[in-house]
Amino acid sequence: xxxxxxxxxxxxxxxxxxxxxxxxxxxxxxxxxxxxxxxxxxxxxxxxxxxxxxxxxxxxxxxxxxxxxxxxxxxxxxxxxxxxxxxxxxxxxxxxxxxxxxxxxxxxxxxxxxxxxxxxxxxxxxxxxxxxxxxxxxxxxxxxxxxxxxxxxxxxxxxxxxxxxxxxxxxxxxxxxxxxxxxxxxxxxxxxxxxxxxxxxxxxxxxxxxxxxxxxxxxxxxxxxxxxxxxxxxxxxxxxxxxxxxxxxxxxxxxxxxxxxxxxxxxxxxxxxxxxxxxxxxxxxxxxxxxxxxxxxxxxxxxxxxxxxxxxxxxxxxxxxxxxxxxxxxxxxxxxxxxxxxxxxxxxxxxxxxxxxxxxxxxxxxxxxxxxxxxxxxxxxxxxxxxxxxxxxxxxxxxxxxxxxxxxxxxxxxxxxxxxxxxxxxxxxxxxxxxxxxxxxxxxxxxxxxxx
Length: 452
Ligand SMILES: Cc1cc2nc3c(=O)[nH]c(=O)nc-3n(C[C@H](O)[C@H](O)[C@H](O)COP(=O)(O)OP(=O)(O)OC[C@H]3O[C@@H](n4cnc5c(N)ncnc54)[C@H](O)[C@@H]3O)c2cc1C
Ligand SMILES: NC(=O)c1ccc[n+]([C@@H]2O[C@H](COP(=O)([O-])OP(=O)(O)OC[C@H]3O[C@@H](n4cnc5c(N)ncnc54)[C@H](O)[C@@H]3O)[C@@H](O)[C@H]2O)c1
What we know:
- This protein is an alpha/beta fold and 452 residues long.
- 32% of the residues lie in helices and 24% in strands.
- Helix 1 (15-26) packs parallel to helix 10 and helix 3 packs across helix 4.
- The protein is globular and about 70 Å long.
- It comes from Periweissella beninensis.
- Keywords: FAD, Flavoprotein.
């Protein structure tokens, strides 16, 4: 081991890697992180953080609407250029803070596209580095469309840097990125068109609530075009584009955002040459996140598995690898119930067993609680907010879905209750603050849960 430059080299500077890098460095190992773009990766620089910061005022405006005719007057609107300046002030330096933290810890940061010479040797810009173990955390990138005029189409990273809100934005796809950004753009005053090749929207989320989101977007003036694909894009001038569709219709627009999925960063790294198996979804791993080459592991979005591609799952895998490498955990990776949120307005959050699965299974019972109406005094007049509790045969909570503005906070409490297998007695042993949305949910949940 001592002959290598590093004990562990991490390719990719996102959440999939840096948590393990820090833990292993603190344990005294020699560590390097190779990053070709920006340390911190997608989430920190051009994903979750920028998205939620820009979404803040849209969320507030959405909540203000709950009080129309109920105590709030006046018009508030989003000033996109000012909001974008605020985003730059708060996000642009984040990677420098991370870089400082890594350097202070004694981690070597090597800038450039990493490629394999052999299973223990990586090259970057004609320099070679050796490592005992190597972790691939290279993430995903937006899938581009191979059509004439594709150079006029933007991706999520461009949107999160957009200096002005275009008058009309057209989104391609009805997945997570498209629906979140369409909600935000619509609230920021843009006319929005969403084009999809089928009628499916957000297959991973409960369709009961997806339908409500779709209707609220339609009510706000958003146009959906289903069963159509873009054939080509013509540029009329700098901000006037024409999309020709497979159904022979045309859409005139000022900005096009492609959100038709994300593909793994596995090319030009010499993976096939050294025997690391990949497929269309990413890098093939076993239950220890080990690739088909014994000293090479993979973590985060680039792993080919059915685990949701999210920052907390990348972080979980990173922490798992650190413990595995330190010999603190020798077991296969075991994922707890995974909490996730769709940041539309309102939000949809879910954890554990999915609602659409539970509703058609004899294994589970579902309790639907319209907590928005029940606890209107504390839900800021959000009368459509709803939770679904999913119980197993033992009356333990195994899943939950929350539809409402505070869903991302509420789902985390429910995730804890699931992971700790908490009973009604456990919940009643805690004194929670009142009034709050969480205490409302917990008090109802305790009525259905196993007692001890
Ligand atoms: C618009 C958007 C919004 C999102 N919102 C959320 C959200 O709200 N909540 C949530 O949980 N998740 C969200 N995600 C998903 C989240 O960003 C990812 O799950 C997370 O970033 C995965 O981390 P990672 O380290 O696996 O990959 P990444 O963060 O993508 O990091 C991979 C890094 O590897 C580098 N790299 C690739 N190849 C090489 C190479 N050969 N050599 C050197 N470096 C290389 C890349 O430059 C990149 O920096 C969002 C994603 C997007 C795009
Ligand atoms: N809140 C969050 O957790 C969050 C937010 C943003 C992104 N993400 C991550 O980003 C990824 C989602 O990215 P996404 O929304 O781009 O992908 P997606 O897979 O969610 O959606 C892709 C959409 O594009 C459509 N599509 C595919 N090919 C098409 C074509 N040729 N023409 C028109 N439509 C087409 C699909 O039908 C689908 O609606 C996931 O990995 C997710 O985990 C998560």
